[in-house]
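VTT domain-containing protein
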Amino acid sequence: MKGRIYFLIPILATATLWLYLLTQLAPSLNAENVPELHFPHNLTDLQKLADLLRMYKDKNLLYTTVLFCSAYLYKQTFIIPGSALLNVLAGALFGITIGFPLACVLTGIGSSLCYLWSLWLGKEVLEHYFSEKIHKLQDQVKKNEHQLMFYLLFLRMFPISPNWLINLTCPILGVPLPMFFISVFIGLMPYNFLTVQTGEILGSLTSLDQLMETSTFLKLAAMACAALIPPIIFKRRTDITITTS
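Tokens:
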């Protein structure tokens, strides 16, 4: 069973090759010192990449969109850090009107692809590498079986939840794929909105720390807590009904 993990290597290699081929098909630009296409690592990288992709967008909108979507799904599927930077990039390229729903859809699809390969790897493989963390999440899922969707939304909205771990463990915890997709799509909406919105002012950013300022963290935490209000109300009403009957 553990040998299955090695089958991820050709899948990852194929996806990487696809991204490489896309970079080779980039439209020609009449500009000097054009930087190479790459994943951004810092604010300067991000701003230069945004400028470059805007030029590509003017030349070929379809190419730029396919390239962006492919890069986004690559990071989400293989749980590579940096989705926040791509959300900012989405705002810089497409604006909040297009960038926000695009980020939500790509987040849902990419996380679902991660869910599927995690499901294929099997429980034994994942427990071998993440045993302690899986058992903790398993206990929480059992405690919240009656309000699982609200609990998943809470996890997604809470700013310090490890989304990569949730993506990996949900399939072996018995979370159905449709529920998983909806929890990702809706639960990460606040985070996606705030980061995509930041992309519209990318040029004025001086530090990536501005993406998660204290005020932003508090907003996301408040939204996460709000996701728990409906199940609490429902539970109280149920308790009252049982008591009176």
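The chain has one domain: 2-28+35-244.
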